[in-house]
Design goal:
Oligomer: single chain
Helix content: 25-40%
Largest sheet: 6 strands, antiparallel, barrel
Strand content: 15-25%
Number of helices: 15
Radius of gyration: 25 Å
Shape: elongated
Number of strands: 19
């Protein structure tokens, strides 16, 4: 399983020394209590680390630069307990290079009506100090997340936790390395893109190899290792022979075991975190990688079919953001519609490669012909997808900029069986409905491939896109075609 570092988030409290040492000691104690309670909360998946109270330009600048240098620090949470003159934050903010969250809270939840005096007012003035700080961050044009509310509230803690996952997606994005096994599918537009600009914007390294380079690894896998992994498959998954000879069926499955072991070794030795394949380029492989790619995705690798490196890298980022969650994240593709009035849905699938992390049932192995690729019948995992709310995301290159299109979707329980469909599938309703959602997707230039997650929200993906400095378009329950067209016009001017 691909793992990330044990990241932490620093908690930086702003104040100043106008009110004396007693005040600063109380600020420090309040900050300590907040951090301790946040860490006790089961709502946060990552540790919050308290830093010394920041009271001048030197301490602020030092804190932010130390955060930049600390490999385990994935971002900084700021809070102004008292008034903190914002000019002293300028240099530190300008030099800061990691995600920033502005927590607009205060230590006390309620106004102590019977006892409040000016000493209390001078100490507890986050409503004042956070606005001063917020003004400077806005003036500097720095992207940040603002979370408002009392720090003890579950909703506030969950919003912080949600942002933490997005922040880690930003940090880890600069480490994503994608291997292109072959090139893009011939004559397809949407899988193309500017790989140099992708590295500038996202930090992604995208390299190309001949499929024969990886096929050598597949061919070098020992028969003993292939048999052992095949045995593991047979223990983990149901086997659907469907009239095929049992021995012949197993031989097809063993091919995918060899492909998985070979690809896995190649990816590990060369430090790649995402992979793309193309059914038009299979020299040295007996089958199009199917079950093998599904298993790699389940272990956290990004994947894109037909050379779609943008979706592969985005999927890897989303896998990172969902580490430890259980609903699943997968490569996906729009296939066909059900257009019954009032019950419109989209059938999602791919010819082989859908991640079993989104499976609603125990996956089963099938071996079926595949007209594309001109190879022997590939083995693949088949299943239906969990019902729930999720996001379908498409990253496209418009020639002058990247655009991230995010559609809120609801996956449905598949009540009607499709016994002749030999692939994994999802049935979902895009927001606000299929008619408007599909029109909005097409007007936005969305691709047929998506990175889909049942664990992430559109807010998290918008935050990720904002931190990356790219255009984001959200299609949700509030979308209308008129408003979307206006948004696209404004975005064209804003993201030149």
């Amino acid at each position: 399983m691909l793992k990330t570092k044990k990241y932490q988030f620093w908690f930086a409290t702003g104040a100043q020394d106008l009110y004396g040492e007693d005040c600063l000691r109380e600020v420090e104690e309040h900050s300590k209590v907040i951090v301790e309670e946040l860490n006790k909360s089961k709502n946060l998946s990552y540790e919050v680390v308290l830093k010394p109270t920041l009271i001048n330009q030197a301490s602020i600048r030092r804190c932010f630069n130390e955060a930049n240098a600390d490999e385990l620090c994935a971002g900084v949470i700021t809070w102004m307990h008292t008034f903190s003159p914002a000019k002293m934050w300028i240099l530190g903010l300008q030099e800061f290079r990691k995600p920033l969250l502005h927590l607009h809270t205060q230590f006390n939840r309620d106004i102590p009506y019977d006892t409040i005096d000016m000493d209390f007012m001078n100490l507890n003035q986050s409503a004042h100090g956070d606005r001063e700080f917020g003004h400077m961050v806005s003036r500097l044009g720095i992207e940040r997340k603002v979370v408002v509310g009392h720090w003890s509230e579950e909703n506030v803690q969950k919003r912080i936790a949600s942002w933490m996952r997005t922040a880690i997606g930003v940090i880890e994005s600069s480490h994503v390395r994608v291997v292109r096994v072959g090139d893009n599918m011939r004559n397809v537009a949407v899988t193309e893109g500017d790989k140099v600009e992708a590295q500038v914007k996202f930090g992604w390294e995208i390299d190309a190899y001949n499929v024969t380079d990886v096929a050598e690894y597949v061919q070098a896998v020992s028969a003993a290792d292939v048999n052992a992994l095949t045995d593991e498959y047979y223990e983990m998954y149901d086997i659907l022979l469907e009239g095929r000879d049992e021995k012949e069926f197993r031989e097809h499955v063993k091919v995918q075991a060899a492909i998985e072991l070979g690809f896995r070794k190649f990816l590990e030795e060369n430090d790649y975190h995402a992979v793309v394949t193309n059914f038009q380029m299979l020299s040295g492989l007996k089958q199009l990688p199917g079950l093998a790619m599904q298993r790699l995705m389940a272990d956290g690798y990004g994947f894109g079919a037909e050379g779609d490196w943008k979706t592969a890298a985005l999927l890897r980022v989303m896998k990172i953001m969902t580490e430890g969650l259980c609903n699943g994240t997968s490569f996906m593709e729009d296939y066909t519609y059900h257009l019954e009035p009032g019950k419109e849905v989209i059938l999602q699938s791919h010819m082989l490669e859908v991640c079993p992390s989104i499976a609603n049932v125990k996956p089963a192995i099938k071996v079926n012909p595949l007209t594309m690729g001109n190879r022997e019948d590939p083995a693949r995992l088949v299943f239906t997808t969990k019902p729930g709310n999720g996001v379908a995301c498409s990253l496209v290159d418009l020639g002058t900029r990247f655009r991230l299109i995010i559609n809120d979707v609801t996956t449905l329980k598949q009540e009607i069986p499709m016994p002749k469909l030999p692939v994994a599938s999802a049935l979902w309703k895009p927001e606000p409905n299929l008619i408007t959602g599909a029109e909005a997707w097409i007007l936005s230039g969305g691709a047929h491939h998506t990175a889909f997650s049942l664990d992430l929200t559109s807010e998290q993906m918008v935050d990720w896109g904002a931190m990356m400095g790219i255009e984001c378009v959200v299609i949700d329950k509030d979308t209308t075609i008129r408003s979307l067209k206006n948004e696209l016009r404004w975005n064209k001017a804003a993201f030149r």
